[in-house]
Amino acid sequence: MSLKIRLARGGTKKRPFYQIVIADARSPRDGRFIEKLGTFNPLLAKDNEGRVVLDIERAKHWLAVGAQPTDRVLRFLDAAGVLNREARNNPDKGKPGEKATQRAEEKAAKVAAAEEAKNAPKVEEAPVEEAAPAAEEAAAE
């Protein structure tokens, strides 16, 4: 039997309240559990003592038996000093997607074209006098 230390949701709509429980991994989230280890109230301030209430001795017992904590419960156990949670590293998370990259390239191309047009020397037009005789010759023929 695979045991999990996980959260079981309670509370009303838009007012969550969680119980920290030991449950079989196959049982539903809010369904049958073996033992209740504590509570988690996300509506309280982060520095409030009542936000996370956890029976550390029982948690140590269940960890020794082989129960695996979920990510959120592992954070609580790390804060309590029971387990050490390794920081995750996902360097690709901050990178923009394909569409955003294409839009950025198009915008950069437009800015570069505008700068080039702004900095390009102006082409002087031929004086009107020189162009006029050529037009007269073409009309005479």
TrEMBL record:
UniProt GO MF annotations: structural constituent of ribosome
Basic and acidic residues bias (residue ranges): 85-125
GO cellular component, one term: small ribosomal subunit
Family annotation (InterPro entries): Ribosomal_bS16, Ribosomal_bS16_dom_sf
Region Disordered: start-end pairs: 84-141
Top-level lineage group: Bacteria
Keyword tags: Ribonucleoprotein, Ribosomal protein
Comp. bias regions, Low complexity: 129-141
Single Gene Ontology BP annotation: translation
Family membership noted in the UniProt record: Belongs to the bacterial ribosomal protein bS16 family.
Name assigned to this protein: Small ribosomal subunit protein bS16
Organism: Devosia litorisediminis
